[in-house]
Amino acid sequence: MLSRGLYVPGVTDYLSAEISTSKQKKFNLVTFVDTPGLVDGDMIYPFDVNCAITWLGEQADLIFVFFDPMGQALCKRTLNIVERLSEKCGDKLMFYLSKADEAGKETDRQRVMMQIVQELCRRPGLNKCGFEMPTIYIPNPQKPSRCVNQIDGVCQTIEKTINQAVQKTLDQLEKDCDLICSTIHGRLEQDRADVTYSRSVRLHSFLCGAVGVFLPVLFILSFIVSTFSKEQLGEMLGEGAALTFTIFTGVVLYFWEWIPEDGQVVFVIVFGAFCYLLLLLAKHFAGKRVKTLSKKEKRVMTDYRDYIQDIVKTKKGKLYEWYLQQCAAEYDL
Predict the structure, then answer these.
(1) Strands (DSSP E) along the chain, which ranges?
(2) Model pTM?
(3) Which of 50, 60, 71, 187 is most buried by its number of CB atoms within 10 A?
(4) CA 213, CA 59: separation in Å to the nearest integer?
(5) What is the pLDDT of residues 163-177, one digit of tens each?
(6) CA 185, CA 181: separation in Å to the nearest integer?
(7) What is the number of other CB atoms lying within 10 angstroms of the CB of residue 123?
(8) How far apart are CA 246 and CA 254, in angstroms?
């Protein structure tokens, strides 16, 4: 069983590991997980063995089921878990007759295989078309056998799965690179829109606030300035500023004189409400500004995008070659 990871409560306490440094047949890219043999009866395991094997099967790339011609591994508990695995991940499930050289003569081996197939076909979840069960065994020079050994096919299946996993990973790398680049591009585009929007609401906030403050101040100053003569204003403010104040205050006083006396109070109330509304609008626009990226943040995001686009993504082919070279045996180089 090729597995990517392991976490099932209770299982980790009963794990043992063996490491091989061989690089033949991409051996260092494979993690084999040998699950315990299951027997019927009152055998109690120290953890939920069915849950553990099912979980491992879901994580694995391949699931090998070995039938021993001696015991035949046809106990109910074994077939139950095999049927459960077939329902959840049947495309990864492969059956083999192990120790096939110990099954006796060819007729004996055929009888054993027929018995296993019949037992499997009784299970609805395992009764499938195109059922295959290659015979495999470890050759013994001291004990030659005429039994066909298809163990090389197992190695080819593993190598094919590794190549597919590597290619799938690199394809996913390319997709992830495109996703990251498009996400960064979208974020930068959104930031440009946010900057434009923030400038617009900032301008609206400034104009409303400025007008809301300027109008009442001008209105009050008009009456104050009207109490001074032009000579007094010139001495206090200078001729240029005095002239400007005189023009503005003159306009305000001119319109003020057009208002009937009995309507002046109402005008002041309406005018004050209008200025207050302008200040509220200024506060409203100020609150609608959105946070934008700083120059440093935009520079970092741009650098990330360029690095991923120009460096990481373009190395896909080289990564594939490098990855396979790491597992190549010396005689393959």
Answers:
(1) 63-67, 93-97
(2) 0.63
(3) 60
(4) 69
(5) 888 888 888 988 999
(6) 6
(7) 14
(8) 12
